[in-house]
Amino acid sequence: EKVTDVVEEPVNYTVVKKKDAQLEKGKQKVISEGEKGLVAKQYEVILENGKEVSRKLIKTETIKPSKNRIVAIGTKPVAKILASRGSGEVSEELYVIATAYTAYCTGCSGTTATGINLRANPNAKVIAVDPRVIPLGTKVYVEGYGYAVAADTGKNVKGYKIDVFFPNKST
Fold first, then answer.
1. Alpha-carbon distances of 166 from 33, 105, 138, rounded to whole Å
2. Domain housing 18
3. Is the pTM of this model over 0.85?
4. Contact (CB, 8 A) for 67 and 37
5. For the chain, what is the domain count?
C-alpha cells in the first residue's frame, strides 16, 4: 500500500557575524535575535502488512522561513593600562579606548590639568584621563606607549577612555 506522510520540521537559524568598528574589540552585541523556521516534508511511504518498508522524500515546502541571528563583533581597538598608586606595584589592570592628542590641538592650551607645560616638555609621557576612573597623578603603563603619568583631563575623556600625549601628529 502507498501512503503520503507530511512531516513538519523546525529549521535552525543561521548566526551572521558582522564587524562593528564602534564596538570595542572582544565585545559582542546581538543586533537581531534569530527565529527558527518551519518546513513541511512530504514523503511517499510504502507499507506492507501495515509496516513501513520504504520512505521517499517527494517535496519540501517552506512554511515559515528562518530569520538570521545577527551579532555585531567589536573591532574598535582598546589599550591595556596597568595602574600603580605610588607603591610601584600594579594595583589595577584596565582595558580602555585610547586616542591621541598634541599640545597644539584645537582648544588645547599646552598645559595639563596638573600644570605640566607640554609645549616646553614635548618628551613628557602624559595621558589624559577621567579622574573618576584613574586619579590624576597615577603612574600607568600603557601597552604600546610605555610608562606615563595621568596628568591631564579632556572634555571627551570620559569613563574608560584615555588620551595619549604625543609631541606632534607625525609621532
1. 43, 11, 18
2. 2-74
3. no
4. yes
5. 2
Query: pLDDT by residue (tens digit) across 1-37?
Result: 899 999 999 999 999 999 988 887 778 999 999 999 9
Q: Are 93 and 82 in contact (CB under 8 A)?
A: yes
> What residues have CB less than 8 Å from 125, skipping those under 6 apart?
145, 146, 147, 148, 149, 165
Q: What is the pLDDT of residues 69-124, one digit of tens each?
A: 999 998 877 776 666 555 556 667 788 888 889 998 887 889 999 999 999 999 99
Q: Are residues 62 and 108 in the same domain?
A: no
A 10 A CB-CB count for 77 gives 11
Strands 161-165 and 146-152: unpaired
**Closest to 19 (Cα-Cα) out of 78, 70, 58:** 70
- The cell for 152 is 591631564
Are 157 and 163 contacting, i.e. CB atoms less than 8 angstroms apart? yes
- What are the backbone dihedrals phi and psi of residue 137, each rounded to the nearest 5 degrees, phi first? 95, -10
Give the domain-ending residue among 74, 96, 116: 74
